[in-house]
């Protein structure tokens, strides 16, 4: 079984209140070296068999149709998962 | 006039929307997200709530529900469609309206009576108002920040498609204080505040919200007389 990994991030010009909340919490735990956080989404799509170019093209289409909203988000990566099929990240 | 109100899994304000239709003199028709047709209604309201749990993005999954294919096709033919709060998010996800709604800039849920200015009285849902009129209706959302790129915002302003604007301070970070917009034709309107919660004296801040529903009913009568 193959797996496609898709990363979606808020567009740079869109305010990311979740990332802002996280960057505010980090120094309270002593992590003082991080000046910014942006929070995105990772999707893992499973397929029967190999992740072929056709599968990746289909996954990219799904990413642009449903998994992201082009007004506020960018699909930054669509790729076959590394390592053995079904293995953990 | 028969006005359909869609119930998605997770809709909250469908009951109040049907009640608002009734108080305005219309006949409310309950529509279900899995319906394959609109049961011949003359207009559609997409109500507030958290359709499909707001999973993925607010309105993103509702947009692909069976009933929405018919709503989108109808809207493109001129069917009056009103999206309130989550319904506004569904309309943006459907690309019937431009832009998107993102988490409030201050990260808190807002629930208050909100002053608005009616910027346009030339939509099917606002014809009973005077342009420039101030109204008060409840506002309650966590993801109500309206965003769009500068060109889109300029176009909305230039074409008179900003329908409602927040007054007395921006409650959620919406660009240019925009609370509601319309499509080019003026049959599709979306807004974050809740007119259906301000339709009866003693319940809510007043009855300003009723005018959206009387507007669309009056528009239908005018076009029936004209036909």
Automatic annotation (TrEMBL), chain A:
Q: Which Pfam families match?
A: PurS
Q: Name one GO biological process term.
A: 'de novo' IMP biosynthetic process
GO cellular component terms, alphabetically, are: cytoplasm
Q: What is the protein's major site of localization?
A: cytoplasm
Query: EC number(s) per UniProt?
Result: 6.3.5.3
Q: What does the record give under GO molecular function?
A: ATP binding; phosphoribosylformylglycinamidine synthase activity
Where is this chain's protein located in or outside the cell? Cytoplasm
This enzyme catalyses:
N(2)-formyl-N(1)-(5-phospho-beta-D-ribosyl)glycinamide + L-glutamine + ATP + H2O = 2-formamido-N(1)-(5-O-phospho-beta-D-ribosyl)acetamidine + L-glutamate + ADP + phosphate + H(+)
| Annotated keywords | ATP-binding, Cytoplasm, Ligase, Nucleotide-binding, Purine biosynthesis
Pathway stated in the Swiss-Prot or TrEMBL entry: Purine metabolism; IMP biosynthesis via de novo pathway; 5-amino-1-(5-phospho-D-ribosyl)imidazole from N(2)-formyl-N(1)-(5-phospho-D-ribosyl)glycinamide: step 1/2
Purpose of the protein:
Part of the phosphoribosylformylglycinamidine synthase complex involved in the purines biosynthetic pathway. Catalyzes the ATP-dependent conversion of formylglycinamide ribonucleotide (FGAR) and glutamine to yield formylglycinamidine ribonucleotide (FGAM) and glutamate. The FGAM synthase complex is composed of three subunits. PurQ produces an ammonia molecule by converting glutamine to glutamate. PurL transfers the ammonia molecule to FGAR to form FGAM in an ATP-dependent manner.
Give the family per the record. Answer: Belongs to the PurS family.
Q: Which HAMAP family match?
A: PurS
User: What PANTHER family has UniProt attached to this entry?
Assistant: PHOSPHORIBOSYLFORMYLGLYCINAMIDINE SYNTHASE SUBUNIT PURS (PTHR34696:SF1)
Q: How does it assemble?
A: Part of the FGAM synthase complex composed of 1 PurL, 1 PurQ and 2 PurS subunits.
Q: What is the official name of this protein in its record?
A: Phosphoribosylformylglycinamidine synthase subunit PurS
Q: Which organism is it from?
A: Kineococcus xinjiangensis
Q: Species lineage, top-down?
A: Bacteria, Bacillati, Actinomycetota, Actinomycetes, Kineosporiales
Automatic annotation (TrEMBL), chain B:
Query: Which SUPFAM superfamilies does the record cross-reference, listed alphabetically?
Result: Class I glutamine amidotransferase-like
Gene Ontology cellular component list: cytoplasm
Span-the-membrane segments of this chain are: none
Q: What is its main location?
A: cytoplasm
Pfam families given for it? Answer: GATase_5 (PF13507)
Q: Name one GO biological process term.
A: 'de novo' IMP biosynthetic process
Q: Which InterPro entries match?
A: Class_I_gatase-like (IPR029062), PRibForGlyAmidine_synth_PurQ (IPR010075)
* Keyword entries, A-Z: ATP-binding, Cytoplasm, Glutamine amidotransferase, Hydrolase, Ligase, Nucleotide-binding, Purine biosynthesis
Active-site annotation: 85, 194, 196
Q: Function, please?
A: Part of the phosphoribosylformylglycinamidine synthase complex involved in the purines biosynthetic pathway. Catalyzes the ATP-dependent conversion of formylglycinamide ribonucleotide (FGAR) and glutamine to yield formylglycinamidine ribonucleotide (FGAM) and glutamate. The FGAM synthase complex is composed of three subunits. PurQ produces an ammonia molecule by converting glutamine to glutamate. PurL transfers the ammonia molecule to FGAR to form FGAM in an ATP-dependent manner.
The identity of this protein, by name, is Phosphoribosylformylglycinamidine synthase subunit PurQ
Origin organism of this chain?
Kineococcus xinjiangensis
């Amino acid at each position: 079984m193959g797996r496609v990994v898709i990363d979606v991030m808020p567009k740079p010009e869109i305010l990311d209140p979740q990332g802002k909340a996280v960057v505010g919490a980090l120094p309270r735990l002593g992590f003082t070296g991080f000046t910014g956080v942006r929070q995105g989404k990772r999707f893992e799509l499973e397929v029967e068999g190999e992740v072929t170019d056709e599968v990746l093209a289909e996954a990219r289409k799904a990413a642009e149709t449903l998994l992201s909203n082009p007004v506020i988000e960018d699909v930054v990566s669509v790729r076959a998962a590394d390592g053995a099929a079904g293995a953990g990240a | 006039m028969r006005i359909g109100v869609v119930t998605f899994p997770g809709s909250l304000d469908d009951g109040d929307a049907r009640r608002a239709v009734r108080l305005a003199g219309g006949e409310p028709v309950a529509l279900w997200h899995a319906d394959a047709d609109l049961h011949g209604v003359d207009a559609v309201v997409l109500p507030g709530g958290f359709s499909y749990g707001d999973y993925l993005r607010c309105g993103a999954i509702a947009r692909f529900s069976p009933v929405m294919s018919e709503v989108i096709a109808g809207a493109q033919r001129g069917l009056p469609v009103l999206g309130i709060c989550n319904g506004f998010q569904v309309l943006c996800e459907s690309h019937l309206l431009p832009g998107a709604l993102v988490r409030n800039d201050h990260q808190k849920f807002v629930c208050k009576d909100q002053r608005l200015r009616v910027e346009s009285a030339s939509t099917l849902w606002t014809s009973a108002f005077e342009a420039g009129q101030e109204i008060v209706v409840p506002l309650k959302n966590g993801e109500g920040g309206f965003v769009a790129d500068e060109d889109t915002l300029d176009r909305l302003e230039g074409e008179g498609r900003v329908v409602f604007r927040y007054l007395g301070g921006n409650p959620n970070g919406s660009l240019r204080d925009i609370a509601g917009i319309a499509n080019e034709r003026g049959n599709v309107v979306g807004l974050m505040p809740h007119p259906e919660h301000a339709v009866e004296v003693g319940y809510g801040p007043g009855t300003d919200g009723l005018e959206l529903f009387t507007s669309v009913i009056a528009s239908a009568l005018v076009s029936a007389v004209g036909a």
